[in-house]
Amino acid sequence: MLYITILLLIVLLLISYQDFRFQAVSWILFLAGFGLILFNSVSENTLLNLFINASGNTILVFFQLGIIYLYSRFKLKKQNIFKSVFGFGDLLFLIMIIPLFSPLNFIVFFLCSVIFSLIGYFLLKAFKIYKNERVPLAGLQSLFLIIVLISQFFIKFNLYNDYLILDKLNLF
User: Fold this and answer.
1) 38: three-class secondary structure by DSSP
2) What is the pLDDT of residues 21-64, one digit of tens each?
3) What does pTM read for this prediction?
4) Maximum CA pair distance of the chain?
5) Which of 16, 24, 56, 73 has the CA that lies 20 to 30 A from 132?
6) Counting Cβ atoms within 10 Å, is residue 60 exposed (0-12), middle (13-18) or buried (19+)?
7) Which of 90, 100, 2 minimizes the C-alpha distance to 45?
8) Are 80 and 128 spatial neighbours (Cβ–Cβ below 8 Å)?
9) Taking the mean position of all CA atoms in its chain, how far away is CA 118?
10) Which tens digit of pLDDT belongs to each residue from 76-125?
11) Are 56 and 106 in contact (CB under 8 A)?
């Protein structure tokens, strides 16, 4: 599984690079990342647990997309959320990582990665490293996932088991 993780880290780096550089990511990277994550998830999990986790995470992603749609439609008066509020690549990134986490760990990852992305974006803007007005969310979340995957080797937590990340982070 080490080779799969290394390939996934390379794909995540490419996603991050393309999002920062071009504000667009090639869909083939999301497909490759999804395949690597799915392969890794199948080898680490039972198919039933993988199906249950992926189903829960899919519901969470579409719930979030619905909230973003309603907010942009009624509050911001925007018709197309993918042109104004949320990038299509950001959605593809979330779909890519659906099989990677249990639903609770997915929520923890998502919240922590959004906070990481906001802090990272403001720091990059403050130091004039990044000049674009749009937040490269998929790129920053990719960097955060790289940190999570690398730290998994040192802390030895299981992404598929609820409460283990929370236990290792001493949140509860």
Assistant:
1) helix
2) 999 999 999 999 999 999 999 988 889 999 999 999 999 999 99
3) 0.89
4) 47
5) 73
6) middle
7) 100
8) no
9) 14
10) 888 888 887 889 999 999 999 999 999 999 999 999 999 999 999 999 99
11) yes
